[in-house]
Specification:
Elements lengths: L7 H12 L2 E5 L4 E6 L10 H11 L4 E5 L10 H11 L3 H7 L4 H9 L6 H23 L3
Parallel strand pairs: 2-3
Antiparallel strand pairs: 1-2
Helix pairs in contact: 3-6
Amino acid sequence: MTTLELTKEQARSISNYKRMGIEIEVLDEKTVKITQSRLLNGFILNQKQLVERAKEIFPERNIVPVVHSIDVDLIDLEWIEGRMKEFGIKRNDLIKQLAIDKSTLSSMFSGDRGLTKSQRAAFFFYFLTYELNRDFRENSII
């Protein structure tokens, strides 16, 4: 089966997943690649979850999962400060909640010390948590 030979149901499923940031590509007659290209509502899928979704559409094919990865180069001091402002987070919050000592944080914000990839990823997921919590509270009935 090639991409031209997809059933209507398979094509509809692929289209639905694409709207959710998940790309499905038929590589050959035996293999399908599934990629989480963007996050929808902050929901991150692991390899097993991607394989399960692709197997629902292509149960007999080998599945190549490609999990979402963040571009940590986009996370800089300007990005962090923007998120701090958006969520009303102060430096003391970062010190306490991310276990960063005050001098290290001051060095980061003054530009004396650059951000490592791990620190950039930590900030990304830290602010993603705040975003998800905000969205959850806005949409829940309390």
